[in-house]
Amino acid sequence: MGYGDLEYDSNDSEYVTYTPFETENLLLRNRIVKSATAEAMATDEGFITEKLIEFYRRLAEGGAGTIITGFMFISEKGRAMRNMTGISSDEHLKGLKELVKEVKKTGKDKWGRIKFIAQLVHAGRQNYPFPDPVAPSAVLEATTNVMPRELTKEEIHQIIDDFAEAAIRAGKAGFDAVQLHAAHGYLLSQFISPYTNRRKDEFGEERAKILLDIMERIRERSRIPVLIKMNACDFIPGGLEIDEAVRIAKLLSKAGYEAIEVSGGMWESRLYTKYNVVCQNVEKSGEAYFRDYAKKIKENVDIPVILVGGIRSLEVAEKLLDSYCDLVSMARPLIRDPYLPSKWKEVKVSDCKSCNKCLKNISKGPLACYQD
Asked: Where are the strands (E) in the chain, listed by range?
């Protein structure tokens, strides 16, 4: 992917990447976001461990302006994997408060405190190996060959309540905001995708309804800022495409969401694309492989857009900011080196090779870099 169409002045003494940025309710000390990644460092019950605290302590020391946690389950039935962090019960609050305390204590510099955001998720039909997978519609999940059960409307309303309760719990724990995970084929992503949502009721007629209802329910009890991570494209026949994603993004912007992080793909995408579109090999795809999708959404909404997907170099980040997105988000490079943001001006490019061993090994043990 070339970048000849983007303007960049390498002689600039000040990098836009390191300038503060203000959303409606958040002042961010720079434009660098640590994107959510499953950590597999909690206990079996979802409680915080010292290993998880240390993981985020190092990220907080590393210089990113914003950290988004790995996805946290909002209900027992919403688990996506083992050793996943929980935010489904007040019993989780003690550990979450300790995690937030350590990150806030560590992540402070002359530009202010780091912003720490809790990502909330329900796995839906992508809950292997747990029983009773559910989805908006009963559509076979082809990578696991599992047929989910279609949710009843009563269950949907309970899930809406569960997301709202989790957001309120995040506020009590001290998080600055929450992010709903509506990407990568998890439940909220399943609702906005025409491939997985074939309902004939109001939750199928307007597939974004669940996102609008969650926001409304949160606002009944809390003013915590709510961000969202959503697919711009499912990369699957009959799935979500960019024009529909833009339409939904407009609704979310009007509904009061704080920012949109743009991503793409679900588990089944690999059956059609021959690679995992969520975690592409940057040497083949180029950096910022979702950039054109992000730009289309940015041109149509009044809230900030965060771009994730293969960003490795400071030069590319500089080219993207303001024209394609407002904030740049990274995961694998910061798993490789959590201190990259503080080094980026000197090293210029992360040495992360997109080998994806960090993610391939997540089912076997805690998140870590396994690059040779």
From this structure: 21-22, 27-28, 32-34, 66-68, 72-73, 108-109, 112-113, 115-121, 134-135, 149-150, 177-182, 226-233, 260-264, 305-308, 327-330
